Amino acid sequence: MYKRVLLKLSGDALAADRGFGVDITRIHEIANELADVHTMGVERAIPGICGPRFSVR
User: Fold this and answer.
1) In this structure, are residues 30 and 9 in contact, taking their beta carbons and an 8 Å threshold?
2) What sign does the CA torsion over 53, 14, 4, 31 have?
3) Are 23 and 16 in contact (CB under 8 A)?
4) Which of 30, 43, 46, 53 could serve as a FRET partner for 14 with CA atoms 20 to 30 Å apart?
5) Higher-confidence residue: 25 or 56?
6) How confident is the model at residue 9 (pLDDT cuts 50, 70, 90)?
7) Are 27 and 14 in contact (CB under 8 A)?
8) Residues 37, 30 contacting (CB under 8 angstroms)
9) 9 CB contacts (<8 Å, ≥6 apart)?
10) What range defines the domain where residue 30 resides?
C-alpha cells in the first residue's frame, strides 16, 4: 500500500457524464473515496484548481 498519493482532478473527471461544469454527485463520490483513503492512513495531496475552466476574468 502507498503511504502518500497525489490526486490531480481533471475537468472531465469533475464533469462526469455531463461533459461540462461540475457534477455535484461526482464530487460527493470523489469525497467519499478520499475519506476511505484517509481511514487507511494514506496521506493525500490535491493540487489547487487552475486553468480556463475556473479562471477569474
Assistant:
1) yes
2) positive
3) yes
4) 43
5) 25
6) confident
7) yes
8) no
9) 30, 46, 49
10) 4-54
- Give the Cα separation of 27 and 23 in Å (integer): 6
Instruction: Check residue 21 and report its DSSP letter.
Output: S
Residue 38 grid cell: 484517509
- pLDDT of res. 54: 54
Residue type, 31: A
- Rounded-to-integer distance, Cα 56 and Cα 26, Å: 24
Report which DSSP code applies to 53.
G
- Count of domains observed in the chain: 1
**Nearest of 52, 39, 57 to residue 11 by alpha carbon:** 52
CA–CA gap between residue 21 and residue 23 (Å, rounded): 7
Which residues, listed in sequence order, are joined to residue 5 by a DSSP beta bridge? 44
